[in-house]
Amino acid sequence: MREITTTLTKKGQVTVPVEIRNFFGLKTNDKITFKISDGIVQISPAKYSIEDVYGIVKPISKPENFKKLRETAVNEYVQKVYKELNK
Q: Which residue, of 21, 23, 47, 59, is most buried by count of CB atoms within 10 Å of its CB?
């Protein structure tokens, strides 16, 4: 286990070391979760709820042909399985 020390500011802020930011792929304004259990604090990237991400993806401009999409997906899956079986 690796130990990294950082400093708590007057405002109660801590800079997350670059090694940890890189490990988790954290970027500016990402949320972090602190879990406390048996005197140990764990840090991890926050998991977003559906409410947090609502509106990020723009709706499609035209209705999809779901029958065609399903047919395409099934055909692609069959081809993948066929290739795997014939290796």
A: 21
Structure tokens at 43: 């840090």
| Total residue length of the chain | 87
Q: Is 63 exposed, middle or buried (0-12, 13-18, 19+ CB in 10 A)?
A: exposed
- What number of other Cβ atoms are within 10 A of residue 47's Cβ? 8
d(C-alpha 70, C-alpha 20), whole Å: 41
CA 1 – CA 45 distance, rounded (Å): 19
Q: In this structure, what token pair is assigned to residue 35? A: 């879990």
State the pTM of this model: 0.50
**What are the tens digits of pLDDT across the range 2-14?**
889 999 999 999 9
* Paired tokens of 76: 């692609």
Q: Sign of the C-alpha dihedral, residues 22, 24, 27, 33?
A: negative
- 39's tokens: 């005197």
